[in-house]
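Sequence decides. Consider this:

===
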Amino acid sequence: MEKTLKVYVYREGSKPIMHSPYLLGIYASEGWFMRLMEANKAFVTKDAKKAHLFYLPFSSRMLEETLYDQNSHSHRNLMQYLNNYVDMIAGKHRFWNRTEGADHFLVACHDWAPSETKQRMAKCIRSLCNADVKEGFMLGKDVSLPETYVRNAQNPTRDLGGKPLSRRKTLAFFAGGMHGFVRPILLQHWENKDPDMKIFGMMPKSKGNRNYIQYMKSSRYCICPKGYEVNSPRVVEAIVYECVPVIISDNFVPPFFEVLNWESFAVFVLEKDIPNLKSILVSIPKKRYLQMQMRVKKVQQHFLWHRSPVKYDIFHMILHSIWYNRVFTARTR
């Protein structure tokens, strides 16, 4: 990929929805990718005839912030905006019409992105945080985008790492809002029920979310239940803080699964098995846990943003997944 792949980035489209990378918060993945892709000299070509892939640089976060009318309770105008954008691209360039967009890709982290892109962008490779197979995510075409909570745009890897095992006294930790139906079940069974299980709702605010981060750094397992949607920034946070992620989200497609063996460094618990959560974790032998935590440290490099891309980092991994799926779909035609 590094030697051959060339990407054409469309210059069309107006800010803030297009070409406006937002680098903070839970939707930061799409912004960091946009920033690094548009500035990239190794992969980007200005000659569209040489391109293998075409990037549609829109921000699903800015689309929602700019156009969504809370009183309307409808995403129709957001979808229409993207449809109009594609019509403009197709009318101005000949590349879209060759494949109906199959060699085009987008990177979008907002929860609504799957529904917003299901019309004119349906044949594109969609890199989505909300990677839900029950909501139209297509294995082999679409790409699971890691949801990364970036708190410092100048230093996105700040606070990297965690405590050694001897200082990880908590068996399992979760704290967060009661989004969706899974988290209330988690708290119903485990909040204030067992000293080994630190399961909370929203924690009191602290500067830089220090309390939350310290719990992750000092726990053996970090519980990552789905919210309203299947994805959660806790999965990447756990890896960043060297805590073995426990994913409770039945229809979630984990990022980079085509090259990473997730079961070697994460635990998957079915939503129906929440009452058995502690017994599942306690039943994992210490040797197996140590292997998983070692592999968490090993895969960590693949989930980190850097102000300039570093080999095998998250930018390269996302691009590789997109390239991989394009090669796969092109061969199966």
